[in-house]
Amino acid sequence: MKSWVLLIGIWCSFSNLLIGQTSGPTSLITWDTFRDISYQKKFNTEVGVDFLYPTFGKSVKKLNGNLIKIKGYMIPIDMEKQYYVLSKFPMSQCFFCGLAGPETILMLNLKRKYPRFKTDEKRTFCGRLRLNAANVYELNYILEEAILIE
Fold it and tell me: What pTM was estimated for this model as a whole?
């Protein structure tokens, strides 16, 4: 099992080179990276209410589409469908329950099915970051094809 985790870690570290991508980090990033964001209130005609739409800063835009690793706390949304959010903070302090902002959470689109994660398990994932500035049904930060590292 540990050798499998090591292989995944190596894949995350070197896959940018394998696919010819030369920009963007492949090491563990911190949640502070996601703070390079501002919000503008706009009326959403589809749902009939104001939403805060993000404008990503230069440092965050450089990460869009790149492989990253990030560590956080698991927040189960729908365990049957494997829908989880990774949070900078435990559940009691996260964006949904505490006073943190939306830059402290990201949606995990898991590459494969995992055994159920428990609330507040601290885990590290590797995946391709996708920035979302328009779809109000998704979070601002999404980790596509996310793979559990630890």
Answer: 0.81
